[in-house]
Design goal:
mainly alpha
Length: 165
């Protein structure tokens, strides 16, 4: 289903987070010497974008979704996943993750994003009319206004390479 324009800002942020997940997956197993660089990137993405993204979802998107009884269990699941992902990002900020932890984080974040995109967003677009989606989009826009977009380039260690040596 074509993404409604009112949800596109969240989808764009999802794309940037998924790109990090793909890079972590492709770099795995991450050598111990590179762990700090990867954790720094996770922590920076969380600080610059994901924390505000989660806030927008929890303050605007999820309350709108809870109005539909069919979506309440999914929203509760997503809220619990936010808590787990916040904990992982805090561990990254404290340089307290192993290579296995980073790989598990990337899998969890990727699964979470795909659940929002493929289930929550799709169903909201089916259940909500254009006016409701526009109201939702305004609320999201107000909450996301001023968020720093994750435009930092990966470090030399964390960027994808055509061939890993």
């Amino acid at each position: 289903m074509l993404r409604d324009k009112n949800l596109i800002p969240l989808s764009h942020q999802h794309q940037r987070a998924l790109a990090l997940c793909v890079r972590i997956e492709r770099a795995s197993p991450i050598p111990d010497a590179d762990l700090v660089a990867w954790q720094t990137e996770v922590a920076q993405l969380f600080q610059n974008e994901v924390s505000t993204h989660f806030d927008a979802e929890e303050r605007v998107l999820f309350p709108a979704a809870r109005r539909f009884e069919e979506l309440v269990p999914l929203v509760e699941e997503l809220v619990n996943e936010h808590h787990e992902l916040r904990t992982s990002c805090a561990r990254a900020g404290a340089n307290d993750m192993s290579a296995a932890d980073l790989a598990a984080f990337a899998r969890s974040l990727s699964t979470h994003i795909r659940k929002e995109e493929r289930r929550l967003f799709e169903q909201l677009q089916e259940f909500m009319g254009p006016d409701q989606l526009a109201t939702l989009g305004k609320g999201l826009g107000d909450t996301l206004r001023g968020v720093e977009q994750a435009c930092e380039l990966p470090s030399e260690i964390t960027k994808l390479r055509a061939l890993r040596g």
